[in-house]
């Protein structure tokens, strides 16, 4: 039985996230009138028709953002799930983060989100990507060797990962530098906006001698459907990789990290049991 209440019944984005979770878990259709009733149940007041319409429009737009294989389908009066979420735990992980944040065992679960981002970036660039966020198992010198970029020095120890979570690159296949390189920060929690300016490209150009200027990127489990908000976030965060872009660059590819999928599936089942009580 689906028991999870809408976290913020005054936000169309939060309601749309909740609707995505409802159809994914229940495998039932959700009508527009039923959605209005659930909003009223969570808010204590009946929502006006225009507000419910705005949530429906948000869902329709999200369906288009997810691409040709969206996780749900929106009709005129109902929305229904289009996937078995167990086959796409990356999607469910992001949806849980978007709804309830990353307050539970944040370091460990945040690392899972970094790994999701790394897999998506490998597919997006058809190149390489590594998780660099602290704590890490890879040395900066070795990472530079894999990219064929020149290692200068490590960041000071007190700087740890210097806000770099994922490093992705698209080589030309000729074992030379001068290529697309993206330095990414990942933020799984609700406070992601405050983190947008934290990663310094100038600082990382001291540690790595890039043959050509690198690009900055920022990954989040939320969806930014408003064009002006996406542009504003990009000013500080660089290329924004939101949930829809993560989904498109994982769900549409046959080669997947099965070990990561198993870990995510276990994590999702435990978290869903905790929040759907």
Q: Spatial order of the strands in the main sheet?
A: 4-6-7-9-10
Order of helices and strands: HEHHEEHHEHEEEHHEEHEHH
Counting DSSP H or I runs of 4 or more residues, the number of helices is 11
Q: Kindly estimate the percentage of residues that lie in beta strands according to DSSP.
A: 5-15%
User: What are the low-pLDDT stretches, counting only 5+ consecutive residues below 50?
Assistant: none
Task: Tell me the distance between the termini.
Answer: 9 Å
- Provide mean pLDDT, rounded: 94
Query: Which bin fits the share of residues in helices?
Result: 40-55%
Largest sheet: 5 strands, mixed
Structural class: alpha+beta
What's the total count of β strands? 10
Rg from Cα: 20 Å
Question: Which geometry do the CA atoms define?
Answer: elongated
Describe this structure in words.
With 277 residues, this protein is of the alpha+beta class. The chain is 48% helix and 13% strand. The chain is built from 11 helices and 10 strands. It has helices at residues 12-26, 32-43, 49-65, 89-100, 106-125, 140-147, 192-195, 201-207, 227-237, 243-251, 258-275, and strands at 30-31, 72-74, 78-81, 128-131, 150-151, 166-170, 180-186, 208-209, 215-219, 239-241. The strands form 3 sheets. Strands 4-6-7-9-10 form a 5-stranded mixed β-sheet. Helix 9 links the parallel strand 9 (215-219) and strand 10. It starts with 11 loop residues before the first helix and ends with a helix.
């Amino acid at each position: 039985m689906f028991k999870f209440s809408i976290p913020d019944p005054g936000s169309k984005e939060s309601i749309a996230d909740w609707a995505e979770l409802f159809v994914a878990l229940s495998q039932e259709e959700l009508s527009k009138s039923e959605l209005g009733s659930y909003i009223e149940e969570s808010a204590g007041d009946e929502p006006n028709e225009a507000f419910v319409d705005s949530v429906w429009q948000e869902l329709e737009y999200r369906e288009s953002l997810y691409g040709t294989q969206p996780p749900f389908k929106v009709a005129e009066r109902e929305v229904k799930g289009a996937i078995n979420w167990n086959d796409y735990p990356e999607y469910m992980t992001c949806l849980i983060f978007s709804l309830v944040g990353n307050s539970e065992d944040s370091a460990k679960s945040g690392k899972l989100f970094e790994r999701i981002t790394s897999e998506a970036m490998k597919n997006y660039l058809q190149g390489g990507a590594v998780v660099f966020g602290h704590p890490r198992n890879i040395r900066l010198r070795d990472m530079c060797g894999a990219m064929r970029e020149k290692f200068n020095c490590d960041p000071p120890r007190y700087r740890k990962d210097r806000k770099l979570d994922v490093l992705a690159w698209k080589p030309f296949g000729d074992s030379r530098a001068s290529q697309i390189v993206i330095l990414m920060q990942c933020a799984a929690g609700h406070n992601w906006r405050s983190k947008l300016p934290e990663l310094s490209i100038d600082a990382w150009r001291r540690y790595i001698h890039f043959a050509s200027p690198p690009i900055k990127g920022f990954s989040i489990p939320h969806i930014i459907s408003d064009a002006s908000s996406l542009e504003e976030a990009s000013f500080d965060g660089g290329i924004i990789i939101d949930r829809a872009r993560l989904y498109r660059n994982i769900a549409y590819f046959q080669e997947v990290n099965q070990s990561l999928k198993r870990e995510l599936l276990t994590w999702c089942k435990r978290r869903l049991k905790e929040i759907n009580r």
